[in-house]
């Protein structure tokens, strides 16, 4: 026997096929488990991704944003409309205020113009009356110097007469009213109760019997039927100047006398027709 026959061999013993198969199965099982675990990981994450459903959330948000934008735009339109309405109202109010101020200004200007025209007309009437009286006084003075009889007549005419009218009815009321104002002051534009101008006195006297005469001398001189100075009756209106252009009026009280608001020096007086001969007369009653 060889000396080497009992020396153990250093070779690795061959593994049997069954062991090899077993090891391969174990390894394959481990790898399969790893593979399954690896596959299981992603499989669990996938449902989370699908549950978010981002497209649906985005669509809802877009609708909300659109609605909010529309509401904001409507608010802006409402504010703009309100601002326009307020501006229009303010403009209309300003225009109305200007129109009112202009109307007031025109009314005041018209009133002033009317007052100025009235004052001018009254001044012209006073000037004409003064000129007529100056002429009459010169004529009367000349007649007085020519004869004592005419002078006496003129003197009698210049004095305040004491004649009491015998008029009746409405004429008596007119005469009585006029005579009751004797001694009152003469004031241009005066209509009583204690101061008068000529036409104001005549108008007030006839108003006591319900007759509404025009206010000024020119109109009063044509307010009735023209009558002759030789056919006068108590209550007739006497006028100085032309019919329709008279500058002075008075009331005939009978007995050749009249009552009138003459001027600021004499006031309301009763005088003879010779004192200031009238141009004509009209009968209203």
The percent of residues in helical segments reads 55-70%
Low-confidence stretches: 33-37, 136-162
| Name of the CATH architecture of the domain at 159-283 | Alpha-Beta Complex
Strand order of the largest sheet: 3-8-4-5-6-7
What is the residue-mean pLDDT, rounded to a whole number? 76
How many DSSP-defined strands? 8
Query: What is the fold named in CATH at topology level of the domain at 159-283?
Result: endopeptidase fold (from Nostoc punctiforme)
The CATH top-level class label of the domain at 159-283: Alpha Beta
Distance between the termini: 199 Å
Estimated radius of gyration: 63 Å
How does the helix and strand content classify structurally? alpha+beta
State the fourth-level CATH superfamily of the domain at 159-283: endopeptidase domain like (from Nostoc punctiforme)
Order of helices and strands: HHHHEEHHEEEEEE
**Tally of individual helices:** 6
Shape: rod-shaped
Description:
It is a single chain. The protein has helices spanning 17-52, 54-146, 148-158, 169-180, 198-207, 217-220, and strands spanning 185-186, 195-196, 225-227, 237-240, 248-254, 257-263, 267-272, 280-283. It is an alpha+beta fold. α2 packs antiparallel against α3 (148-158) and α4 (169-180) crosses α5 (198-207). The strands form two sheets. It has a six-stranded antiparallel β-sheet. Strands 1-2 form a two-stranded parallel ribbon. A hairpin with a 3-residue loop joins β6 and β7 (267-272). It has a domain at 159-283: endopeptidase fold (from Nostoc punctiforme). The model is unreliable at 33-37 and 136-162 (pLDDT under 50). The longest helix has 93 residues, at 54-146.
